[in-house]
């Protein structure tokens, strides 16, 4: 028995069990896919580092204004802010690949990321925390101090807010501007840092 092309196509479609279309989507390495979950426990003691963006601007702490600014430093590095970087672990992590939960502090101040009630944009600020931050719960207010540190290649590191996924610590293309939070696609900001001992 011979079939026409239309009948043959109909026979195939009748016997097709399930049609499935798959689209490959690859997240950048270390990107937080959703808000963090669970409890984060501090690992070891904080270690000191300085940070500079990939345009070689160093982060400097301005005591008078309580701001961190990205400044091009000529000569020595004694003006660079020394960050206490505390590492954390979480059994139910929601990050991919190499993202490491961290808290960044300067002296008795910690960087935090939070939103003002009248703003849609998270704000980066220095904040004194009464808690020791040895344990941070994802549903607690202290999660604003937690950032996901991701290093790509040999030395480019990003710091993404654990409280507001998709928002990164950034510097301006212009020198001597305060560091802020931005979304990854903001071409006016630099989100990659070099972490130095």
From TrEMBL:
Question: Which UniProt keyword terms apply here?
Answer: Cytokine, Cytoplasm, Inflammatory response, Lysosome, Mitogen, Pyrogen, Secreted
Listed under GO cellular component are:
cytosol; extracellular space; lysosome
GO biological process annotations for this chain's record?
cellular response to lipopolysaccharide; cytokine-mediated signaling pathway; fever generation; immune response; macrophage chemotaxis; neutrophil activation; positive regulation of cell division; positive regulation of gene expression
For this protein, the record's PROSITE patterns field holds: INTERLEUKIN_1 (PS00253)
**Does the entry feature the keyword Secreted, yes or no?**
yes
Instruction: Quote the Pfam families the UniProt record gives.
Output: IL1
Q: Which residues cross the membrane?
A: none
Q: Where in the cell is it found?
A: Cytoplasm, Cytosol; Lysosome; Secreted, Extracellular exosome
Q: Can you tell which superkingdom this protein's organism belongs to?
A: Eukaryota
Q: Which GO terms describe its molecular function?
A: cytokine activity; interleukin-1 receptor binding
Q: Which family does it belong to?
A: Belongs to the IL-1 family.
Instruction: Tell me the protein's name.
Output: Interleukin-1
Source organism (scientific name):
Oncorhynchus mykiss
The gene name reads il-1 beta 3
